[in-house]
Write a sequence for this structure.
């Protein structure tokens, strides 16, 4: 079951080791006009071998205020998977999502 981390790295996720010893994988998908989610993060639950994986998908947008520009989170989705195969399938699906035409022109 250790191949799930290799599959995430093949999908261009960046592996991050935290100070507390935990590991997370982050994917910055690209420009918000081309991809629905702007950031996808995977955290393993349980150590040393994971029992589950928490997948967080977030969409950030730029908002212009009176005094400065804000990067706000517009949409967020958190799902916990107990199967590595289902997690990879879900991530591939989430990466394939595209923003609607209105979202493309408003960003």
């Amino acid at each position: 079951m250790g191949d799930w981390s290799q599959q995430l790295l093949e999908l261009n996720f960046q592996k991050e080791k935290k100070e507390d010893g935990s590991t997370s994988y982050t994917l910055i998908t690209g420009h918000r006009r081309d991809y629905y989610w702007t950031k996808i993060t995977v955290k393993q639950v349980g150590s040393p071998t994971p029992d589950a994986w928490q997948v967080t998908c977030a969409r950030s947008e730029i908002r212009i205020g009176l005094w400065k520009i804000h990067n706000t989170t517009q949409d967020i989705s958190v799902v916990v998977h107990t199967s590595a195969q289902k997690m990879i399938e879900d991530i591939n699906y989430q990466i394939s999502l595209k923003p609607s035409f209105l979202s493309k022109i408003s960003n």
The mean pLDDT is 82.
